[in-house]
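sorry for the late reply, my laptop died twice this morning and i had to redo everyting from scratch. anyway the thing you sent over, i finally got around to it. pasting the sequence first so we're on the same page, its 182 residues, then the predicted structure underneath. double check i copied it right bc i was rushing
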Amino acid sequence: MYKIAVALSLLAGPALATGLEIEIAGEANGTVKIDLYEDIAPGHVEQITALASEGAYDGVVFHRVIEGFMAQTGDVQFGKLEGGDMGRAGMGGSERPDLKAEFSNERFLRGVVGMARSQDPNSGNSQFFIMFDAGEFLNGQYTVVGQVTEGLEIVDAIKRGTGPNGAVVGQPDVMTRVTVTD
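ok and here's the structure:
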C-alpha cells in the first residue's frame, strides 16, 4: 500500500520539481517558497532560474504592489535596492532576450506567480508577480510560471504601494536572496 501511495504522490506533482526560495526583508520578513511550472512554461522557468542562479534577483525590490491584486518584482536592471534607479523600477529587464508567451489553462488564483510584461504578450523578461487574490481577468493573457507553496503570509505582509499603479513610496520590501531549489 505504501508503494502505491508514493507512486500516486509522484504522479500528482509536476514533472520536474524546480522551485525558488525567496528571502524577503522589509515590512515583510521571511522566506517564500515557489514551485515553478516548467511543464507549462519551460522558457519562462529557464529564464527565471538562470537569473536566480546568477544572483540577479538578489537585492531587487517589490516596486509595484496593489492591495487585493498582486506584488510585482524582478526588475534586475533598475530595481536593485543598492545601485538601482527607483524612479525607473519596473521599466527594465535583463540582458537576456524577451520571451514568447506561454499561455496555458492555469488560472490566476491566490498565490499564483505570473510573468510581468508590457502590452506585447511576447515581452516577458525578468519581472514577475505574486497574486494576493484571484485575478481571473489575467487568465490566458499572462504566462503562469508557478505557485507559492510556503510563506503566503509573508507575501501578504509585503509593503503596499499607492495609487492605481501601486508604486511603492519610501523604502520598498526587497528580495534579499533568491535561490533555485530542486
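The longest strand covers residues 174-181.
thats about all i looked at so far, will dig more tmrw
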